[in-house]
Fold each of these.
Amino acid sequence: MTETTPQPRKRILVVSAHPEPRSLNAALTAFAVEHLRAAGHEVRVSDLYAMKWKATVDADDFPEDAVDRRLNVMDVSERATLAGRLAPDIAAEQEKVRWSDAVILQFPLWWFGTPAILKGWMDRVFTAGFGYGPKVPPPYGGGALTGRRALVSVTAGARETSFAERGIHGRLADVLHPLQHGLFWFTGMAPLEPFAVYGSNDLPEERFAAARREYGRRLDGLFTDEPVPYRTLVGGDYDHDMRLLPGVEEPGTSGLDLHLRPRG
């Protein structure tokens, strides 16, 4: 009998954003934590609603900055980050991201985006000097958080067909582009294809069981599945103004797919 080679032990941060602890999102978070730990990985969880996470960036995030100075968020966040003077809750979440080999975001799709509390986590945690800035490596494939993987696990009340090429909501890849490309890839994390549960407002047990099985498969491939093949900023595909060079794309490619490298 052939034995399966065990996967190297990894560290995963799961960030969960749903106000109801008995929700589908909470169940998927619990499943991911149990599944990953059973596989031998270390897991930390940031349950943003349980933490009562503050979602807005303001001067309180930079407690040692001069109160009479105009609040230029990028400049002050970089100063505070590099000097180790961020608000304690931000510093704690940054430490979790640094600790991790992969980040999983679990959330419901609300108005074609993340819940405000999760957007606030991104706004406050990925400060200049941590996630981006002139003193870290260039973005889009070589950023400060290079080496980490990222997975979106999202629930949507609408049916899957409505998020298709001709679906009324547009492709899920396009809806999630600001997160996949604009947060993960910009900071250097390698995003995987999203995992989605559709029709989530009324999910019978047999469909939930099927979703768990599929999610388990995706979690097993967290460090082996091929990431979304976005182009790198320094790979020769863009000009000095960050515009894709003419003729780089495959014939017939348009829209956000222009920023994908051909597979194979």
Note: The longest strand covers residues 102-108.
Amino acid sequence: MSEATETTLAASSPDGASPQARTAWLAVATVAVGIFAVVTTEMLPVGLLTSIGAALGTSDGTVGLALTVPGLVAAVAAPLLTVAVGRLDRRLVLCGLMGLLAAANLVSALAPAFPVLLAARVMVGVSIGGVWAIAGGLAARLVPERSAGAATSLIFSGVAVASVLGVPAGTLIGDLADWRAAFWTVCALALAVTVAMAVLLPPLPADRPVRLGEVPGLFRKAQLRAGLVTTGLLVVAHFGAYTYVRPVLEDVSGVGAGLISTLLLVYGVAGVAGNFLAGSAAHRDPRRTLMVLCALLAVAELLVPLLGRTTAGAAALLVLWGLAYGGVSVTTQNWMLRSAPEAREAASALFVGVFNLAISLGALLGGRVADHIALSGVMWCGGALAVLALLSAGVLGRARRARHG
């Protein structure tokens, strides 16, 4: 037995009170915080959109590229890095990627012009794609098999919490100081996580290298294809509108700048609740759960131009929106892992690629609508795509069940 295997097994001691077991769960929590850091960095421009644009002399739609670019890079980096790292120790890979994230946030905080910020966001995309894809399969290697499910949920809670709380936290920091302070804060967090991973993670050599043809080969699975199509549509629907939620709240709802971070925090709290509410339901039936989330998201976005013209109306719809989107990551991840249980790392890489591609497409689509049609149009467009996601889950998912049921 290798030293790496002995270390991992020691960390997975069945004695819940042992120092090894406590260290194992600290390692799991560190991976979760790492995912929180990369997803928060990815989402940070959403709440800082107008501040960045004003400081760097760029339109809201153009600043949206700060979300589009890392999403596109992550979509490519996730499958390619999973293959490229081969048999490299995953602990070293994760530490390197978190260090890259810290450097990217440092460059962002110091950026004198928008092209420099955009270059830093390319670095962010590489880190996102690698960390998220690799971290997804680590839980079972850090804790005993009986605890792997809980550990996996904890790791992926980093995605959900970052998606719903990262933006309001960054917005609040931006309001209290300035937008650069938000990037400095996440830079410090990324450095802390890098050190924690180096100290707490055991050696994690690859179980087996992922072959280049393995990732696209998963498209042959009908269940996985249905989940990916629905995930893509739903994430585009969300980010096509949510990337521009701050200017919408200011111009359409008439919300004062001082209340923006509060409303986004309300959205975030609702999102955390949605994550846990959807988690148990998604474990039983991810398809039906995702259909409910699609419907709620469609209603929330479509009603913003109609009923969200006051602060109270906007707040109520943001609560509904948060409840809906808060459950998306845990539900879609459940769908993916059920679709390819024998190839979890490859399936996670493909899922991360599609998810981040959808983020970038959503931000890009919303920017074009905001700049060339109308700001409220991002809500109509996002709501319509959420309806398409609902139809996809219903029709493609039902057809898949008919073939394999």
Note: The chain is about 85% helix and 0% strand.
Amino acid sequence: MTADLAYVVIGASLLLAIVLPDLLRRWAISAPMVLVGIGMLIGLTPLPDGLPLDPRANRVAIEHATELVIIVALMGVGLALDRPLELRNPRSWRRWSATWRLLVIGMPVTIAAVALLGWAAGLAPAVALLLGAALAPTDPVLASDVQVAGPQTGDHEVDESDELRFTLTSEAGLNDGLAFPFVYMAILLATEGAVSRWALEWVGFYLVAKVVIGVVAGMLVGRTLAYVAFRSSNRSLRVAERGESLLALAALVASYGVGEVLGGYGFLSVFVCAMSFRSAERSHDYHAAMHEVAERLERLLTLFVLLVLGIALTRGLLEALDWRGIAIGLALILVLRPAAGMLALTPWAGRTKGTASLTRGQRWATAFFGVRGVGSVYYLAYAAGEDEALAQDWLWSTVAFTIVASVLIHGVLATPVMARIDPVRR
């Protein structure tokens, strides 16, 4: 194939990325499903012979590419959420109760379950723990079919009928950063050995300090940019007045950079920055314009990630996959995540406080739609750079299989399930 033909394929793929979301809206087929399939077909041709597809040889490129996709998605998710979260308002925290339950109960239970399953299948403890940490967080990139559509401007009220989508969206926005302590736990277990050597460091620094730093950094950047954009005394700096929506890109890059430089979790910084910015002038149309920029950029970046993933699938990425990887991936999607989600969301001892706004059907849907995606690839690439034992081909094959299985299973079921639960919205 010539380079000119490559441009034709890329151009056609870009066109698909633009038209697929609306074209497939009423069908049980998602855009990620189609894009992965196209990538697999391209992989069967001679076209991508020169593409860097070996995950070990191209670990750094994979890490940075997926990192960029995630922070763009997190900015879009943070701007899309209409429900406020005020530090000094207990009532606002209670309205996020389902999200906290999924993060504090559901995610650790999922990590532990996958890790135990991997350990029982013969994996080393550090490898099993990394697999659980990488696969546990739901993905803000590939879960658009079950997330809120975007910021609703002109009205401060929260649409309570959208509780299911709000919970899935807010969980995806926060758990990418909150899974990082467990990735570091796997790295420390592989590099430092006995837990007694690093347990206090992990709790004090990786679990607490880095989370706090990431949140504070995001709040500072978000509030600073909001003040400049909406209230600066210099008219030239009040970019919200002229609708300069590219500030979204400056915000996501700045917040991620500040969070990382200060030693915190940059993913948390980006999401908190977007939430902090959204809290300023909440009804302003500028939030919708910024969200549109982030959403379009995310769509284009996701296109290339999914195409390359599809190509890699038919170019040897699954060669190391065995029955253990298939069993763990399917168990996670069909059993472990749904069970952990229901454990977190089901009211205890007859009390409904915190989950009353979710019906039983919505709780089941929230527990089931834990979409795996780009974040899993990033965490694996990051950990693989820290220790060779965490860079196994089997891990890459298993994570890739789980992502594709999630794309297929969740993609097929998203439209009919969401339509059944909330037919008015559809």
Note: Residues 156-160 have pLDDT under 50 and may be disordered.
Amino acid sequence: MGDPDVEQAVRRRGRPPQTSARELEVVALRLFTERGFDETTVDDIAAAAGVSRRTFFRYFDSKVAVLWHDFDREVDAIRDALAGAAPDAPVMEAVRRAVVGVNRYRVEDIPELRRRMQLVASVPAIHASSAVHYDAWERTITEFVARRLGHPADSLYPLAVGMATLAACRAAYDVWLRQDDEDLTVFLERALVALAAGFDLQEISSPTPHAATAEP
């Protein structure tokens, strides 16, 4: 069965007034999956969505930017969650809650997330564009830690926490992509609890870290 959102977008022709970045994202992801990223052009995406090339560029600078649209929204959501963290919450607990909370996806959205992340991981042209987006994600953590510590954002500890958190989360994503029946948040929880524990083997092996997965 096809994705109903995609099918609805594909059926539209002309220049529908309700065309959105989301519609283009859904159509592009389907074409990338069916035809391959390199084989799909901006014109292909625009035609399938029933819009002009000019309309496409009103939303995105390039076809690769389509795949980072949801990721960039995640960065904004993490920033907002950290801004609302309790002042007395431990730094790494606040970071873990924000990251895991933003990555709670509905069951019906998981296949799309997997397709997007698999494309990012497997297509060189997409992977090559990742640095600026990962830097923004990392900077969100770094700036939060800097505020909490009262340190400059480019000083050692905020940078170390930001870089380490990004690395732990990327490891969680990589493992999750190989597991068809697991919840992404399970791996994010484990990775970030382990990071907060300094990857102490005794702490990681005990039942305590995994209790975090039961949080609402």
Note: The domain at 4-66 is CATH 1.10.10.60 (Arc Repressor Mutant, subunit A).
